[in-house]
């Protein structure tokens, strides 16, 4: 397997390179953290700045620490990853949290998203997928890998109650017809590029619509918006 490489980002001559994305690792297995650190620190645009062995230690270590993205395990002693994620995300938009799972349909994935996680990643994912997840979440997009996104949507569809959430449905009233279209396509796991092709518009236009959808729904990112789409009944399983 070839070693992962960072994406090439053109910079003007003499310009200082952008600061690396600051990553924190939270996992009760030291060997897992060591492996993640080795892969992440091999990239010039990424840097591991903190580690913790459980949620309680993570909350202490990350208090007042400048971190961009947290890779958070779910099952840990003392404070689990779900509780730690909820407490971290309640403090503000950063850091963004990517939940680490062992199984494709971990029963805690939906709860983690509801707690404010920006996405999830399988622990046995290839190194390139993990690196892409960190960069993608840091850029503000919660679509990590198409296969992972589809699994999340399928799990979400079966985990949410059949009856629409009347309170959440009120949020949709603020959306224009085009923004509703975009939200439906987001909920089906479509990327900005794919949505642009579906609607015959420029990708920049889609990005503008996505930004407005997130703002009107009060969503942290695309995953949170997708949760709202299912909770309101705008999108239903199999539709």
UniProtKB/TrEMBL annotation:
GO biological processes: phosphorelay signal transduction system; regulation of DNA-templated transcription
Keywords assigned by UniProt, alphabetized: DNA-binding, Phosphoprotein, Transcription, Transcription regulation
Modified-residue entries (4-aspartylphosphate), positions: 73
Protein name from the UniProt record: LuxR family two component transcriptional regulator
Domain Response regulatory positions: 22-138
Domain HTH luxR-type: 168-233
CDD domains: LuxR_C_like, REC_NarL-like
GO MF term (any one): DNA binding
């Amino acid at each position: 397997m070839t070693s992962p490489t960072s994406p090439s980002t053109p910079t003007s001559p003499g310009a200082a390179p952008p600061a690396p994305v600051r990553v924190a690792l939270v996992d009760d297995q030291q060997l897992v953290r060591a492996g993640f650190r080795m892969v992440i620190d091999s990239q010039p645009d990424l840097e591991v700045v903190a580690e913790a062995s459980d949620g309680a230690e993570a909350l202490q270590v990350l208090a007042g620490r400048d971190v961009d993205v947290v890779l958070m395990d779910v099952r840990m002693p003392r404070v689990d990853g779900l509780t730690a994620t909820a407490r971290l995300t309640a403090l503000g938009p950063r850091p963004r949290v990517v939940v680490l799972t062992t199984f494709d349909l971990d029963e805690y994935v939906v709860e983690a998203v509801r707690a404010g996680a920006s996405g999830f990643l399988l622990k046995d994912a290839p190194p390139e997928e993990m690196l892409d997840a960190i960069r993608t979440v840091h850029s503000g997009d919660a679509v990590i890998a198409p296969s992972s996104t589809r699994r999340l949507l399928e799990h979400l569809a079966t985990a949410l109650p059949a009856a629409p959430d009347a309170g959440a449905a009120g949020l949709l009233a603020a959306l224009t017809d085009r923004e509703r279209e975009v939200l439906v396509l987001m909920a089906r796991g479509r990327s900005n590029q794919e949505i642009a092709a579906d609607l015959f518009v420029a990708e920049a236009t889609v990005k503008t619509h996505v930004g407005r959808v997130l703002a009107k729904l009060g969503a942290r990112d695309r995953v949170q918006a997708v949760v709202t789409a299912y909770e309101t009944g705008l999108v239903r399983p199999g539709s």
